[in-house]
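During the reporting period the student researcher (J.K.) took over the structure-prediction task from the postdoctoral fellow and processed the backlog of single-chain submissions. One of the processed entries is reproduced below for the supervisory committee.
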Amino acid sequence: MERGTWIVAVGDELLSGHTADSNSHWLAQRLRQTPYPVRRMVVVGDSDAEIAEVMGSAVASGADRVFCCGGLGPTPDDRTVAALAAALGLPLREDAATLRRISQRLARLHQEGRIASAEPNSGHRKMALIPAGSLVLVNSVGLAPPLALPLPTTGEPRWLLVLPGVPAELLTIVEEEIVPVFCQGARAAVYAEERYSGVPESQFYPVLLRLAEEYPQVRFGSYPQAQLGDVIIRACAADGTVLERAMGALREQSPPSRS
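J.K. obtained the following structure tokens:
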């Protein structure tokens, strides 16, 4: 079983290159600081079949957390919630509390002169259709309701976390609603890095090969910074003491010119 987190980003605009997937990048950075680092990222289009297929794989993987981002809006191409409900065998029901929150936000927007009518339309009502058994979280920035759905488990709780794709909304929801409740605990891994100047990346091959054998609990990677002529050697491990020893060995064995 695969621990950690899957991120599923939904949107034709991501696949076509019209929009960069900044949400997955930010989430990976944020979740690195939690017990649930990202193990896999997947991008799918606004297709019921594609969403259902990848969701089946994510659930079967045993991932502790599955983030599904995008496709919660009021238009027909926003298919994520209905597709997830179908994939998980859950009926959709209009949630009165969610519709009430949407109506209250519409009233504020109307009062501010930002929309012509405060009356919820069919698109708004679509956003209030919630899969049975979901926890509806708070979106303090926008209209689309974020959701938390429990996933099948024989051990620790597993969660599917469904978030709007608008970056400002997603970031706020993660910080206010997700991390404090669903991602609490010590980080799963610690990181360290060294930067070297004027040393060809290939010279690190024998060094990193030896270190991988000496410290199998540590993952090393080399990352050339071509414009600067530098190489970053980065390592991560679950045990900070082991990581510190491995980094000491790196410093002893590496080519000169470390900056």
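The committee noted the following: The first strand starts at residue 5 and ends at 10.
J.K. will present the remaining backlog at the next meeting.
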